Amino acid sequence: APATGTPCGDGVSSSFFMALIDALGYHFDLVAADIVEVAPDLSDLKGQELTRELAADYSLACLKQMIKEHS
How many other β-carbons are positioned within 10 Å of the β-carbon of residue 4? Predict the structure, then answer.
């Protein structure tokens, strides 16, 4: 995400991170999540929107893993 305090051009892709959340939720009971370094004011409007969307997507993915029913 571009609007972060510590941008990293060669960092983890959003699709990899979403797959990681799913894998962790599959193997472990997720009980907490922490979204950090979201700083929309550090980017232009397009970067702000993308950063907010990614943070919301990550939050939703974590919440889905936390509330899923185990069979």
Answer: 19
